[in-house]
Design goal:
The complex is a heterodimer of chains A (298) and B (275).
Chain A lengths: L10 H31 L16 H7 L2 H32 L6 H7 L2 H4 L2 H12 L6 H7 L13 H29 L3 H9 L4 H30 L2 H6 L11 H10 L4 H31 L2
Chain B lengths: L4 H28 L4 H4 L14 H9 L2 H32 L5 H13 L2 H15 L5 H25 L3 H9 L4 H30 L2 H6 L8 H11 L4 H35 L1
Classes of the chains: A mainly alpha (298), B mainly alpha (275).
């Protein structure tokens, strides 16, 4: 085999041509802005289009001494953990169900992802309507089932609004995770289960000793992805509660958006996003490191 | 493996819960969009519309800007999907078929950049686009949407190229076919399902994108569906009929699109997830 691939072709030069457009775009719209965010965070920019005076670490000092920033960071941590937990449990259950053989399984596997393909604003309309205390269907349903005795205000107080948002966001994302878990489940050879069944292992033991260990690498990758993705979620929160009531659902992206586009403090908002990205990268690396030894063992 | 009665009950219960979770809310919205306003907010909700009206759809299409938003979304999402497919295919070929120095480092850089929170680049992008005169253009949305869809699409490409035997290209090359001819006659047809999954991923991402569309677009005539619809929420004194009709119409095109290529999308996604 020659180093240059097929029939002595000059791979390096072809790669340059092929990658120029896609990587040029990514450099201009991902890499450059990331660098630029650091630069903006060191300036006091309050007017769009002006560069603003250099202010050193002032923005960082201002943020780190602001209780609102710390509360939003805390909210983000709870948000990410809550979403990971709910989504993983729902997705794993869904994947186990869809991994069975039954008539119509192919259609079910495709259509489970329906909640992911609809726009967030539609998700928001659906749930605002279903959960509304007047005319929504969830309250009458819960009353009929005897779970509650009078209509509940799902966005009325902080903890309630926060859990409702987590439920709605998980509803939106769990099918996406479920489909990926399903793929991992289908790679587990059927003989393993046959053999275990012959040895007299029940469904629970088969799950614990075959499914669970073999599923873990995928689960970890998805946890890393899910952490990054749910940290980023802005639209569901913004459109349903706008961070309220009283800041209870104000996660970091919501605070960054408000600081930049409501208060026009671009420098401070950029500083917050720099801190947020450092935290996310740290977290992602830590999670990936946890996962690395398991992957080489496969 | 044989399933006992308990297995069947568990399976049916699981499926019922999934259906209730995913399908029922969407069904309720779609069916209620045909109800008269007083039935929509009736204290005793109805599973099947007792009244039937198209008034919400008439109002939505005739008196609101919904048709404009819809057109903008179709345009932005289709162009984004097309560009993403082209760029991801080019990058995919380079990353997974060619050998060149720095390949792995470049590939890793793309993936790491993707992990940055999108809110981080919102502010710099806004300032950059303001300088470049791209604010309030649909092109700005296409650029952003392609940027967000591209890394995941390149990642999915890996699987599709891995499923194509390299010998096919070598044979074509021996037969005297150039790279372009090989790509057009051999790679593209075989990559069809993969390209369809990338197209649908990019289309759906663009169709649902809210944050950048709300910041980069200023004029009503250029708004996309998510931002336009959220404007309608506030603009009228919550007119549920109108919103439910708008929600239904925003879902229809993706559902139709998905009905044709969803099969490939799900297999593409699942293949990509495990390799």
């Amino acid at each position: 085999m020659t180093k240059s691939g097929i029939a002595g072709r000059n791979d390096g030069r072809i790669a340059l041509y092929l990658l120029a457009a896609p990587l040029g775009l990514l450099a201009a719209t991902l890499i450059l802005p990331i660098v630029s965010a650091v630069n903006i965070s060191l300036h006091d920019i309050r007017v769009i289009g002006s560069d603003g005076p250099f202010s050193g670490a002032d923005n960082y000092v201002a943020i780190l001494s602001d209780a609102v920033f710390w509360r939003s960071l805390g909210n983000s941590v709870v948000w990410v953990l809550g979403n990971s937990l709910v989504q993983t449990v729902l997705a794993l259950t869904a994947a186990l169900v869809l991994n069975q053989k039954f008539p119509g399984v192919k259609i079910a596997r495709i259509w489970i992802i329906l909640t992911w393909i609809i726009p967030t604003v539609v998700v928001v309309i659906i749930w605002r309507w279903l959960l509304s205390p007047s005319g929504g269907m969830i309250n009458p349903l819960l009353i009929q089932l005897g779970i509650i005795d009078r209509p509940v205000g799902f966005f009325a107080n902080g903890p309630m609004a926060f859990s409702t948002l987590i439920a709605i966001n998980s509803w939106r994302w769990f099918p996406f995770v479920a489909v990926m878990l399903l793929a991992a489940l289908q790679r587990i050879p059927g003989d393993l289960y046959e053999a275990a069944a012959v040895d007299g292992a029940g469904p629970l033991r088969r799950f614990r000793e075959i499914t669970w260990p073999l599923l873990q690498p995928t689960l970890l990758v998805l946890t890393v992805m899910g952490t990054l993705l749910s940290f980023n979620v802005f639209d569901v929160i913004w459109l349903l509660t706008a961070g309220g009531p009283a800041g209870a659902t104000q996660t970091l992206p919501v605070l960054i958006y408000e600081t930049a586009f409501k208060a026009y403090r671009m420098g401070e908002a950029a500083a917050m996003s720099v801190i947020a990205s450092l935290l996310m990268i740290g977290l992602a690396l830590a999670l990936l490191k946890m996962l690395a030894p398991k992957e080489t063992g496969r | 493996m044989k399933r006992g009665p308990i297995g069947w009950i568990a399976l049916i219960a699981g499926l019922a819960v999934l259906a209730a979770l995913v399908l029922v809310p969407i069904y309720l919205v779609a069916s209620s969009s045909f109800k008269l306003p007083r039935e929509i907010i009736n204290r005793v909700p109805s599973w099947f519309p007792k009244s039937f009206t198209l008034q919400h759809y008439q109002k939505l299409l005739a008196t609101s800007d919904f048709p404009t938003y819809f057109g903008n979304s179709v345009l932005v999402s289709s162009v984004s999907a097309l560009l993403t497919v082209v760029l991801a295919t080019l990058a995919g070929y380079a990353f997974f078929r060619l050998e060149f120095r720095g390949r792995d480092a470049l590939y890793r850089a793309v993936m790491v950049a993707y992990a940055f929170p999108s809110i981080v680049i919102l502010i710099p992008i806004y300032l950059m686009f303001a300088k470049a005169g791209l604010i309030d253009t649909r092109a700005a949305l296409v650029i952003v949407n392609v940027t967000f869809a591209l890394p995941f699409s390149i990642w999915m490409m890996r699987t599709f190229f891995a499923s194509l035997p390299k010998e096919l290209e070598e044979a074509a090359s021996i037969d005297g076919a150039g790279l372009a001819a090989t790509a057009w006659y051999i790679l593209i047809p075989l990559l069809g399902p993969g390209l369809a999954s990338i197209a649908i991923f990019a289309f759906v991402s663009a169709w649902t994108e809210y944050l950048f569309a709300s910041v980069l677009i200023l004029s009503d005539a250029k708004r996309t569906l998510p931002v336009g619809l959220s404007g309608i929420i506030g603009q009228y004194q919550i007119d549920w009929g109108l919103l439910l009709a708008g929600a239904t119409l925003s879902v229809v095109p993706v559902v139709i699109f998905f009905a044709f290529v969803g099969r490939w999308f799900v297999s593409g996604l699942t293949e990509g997830a495990v390799k």
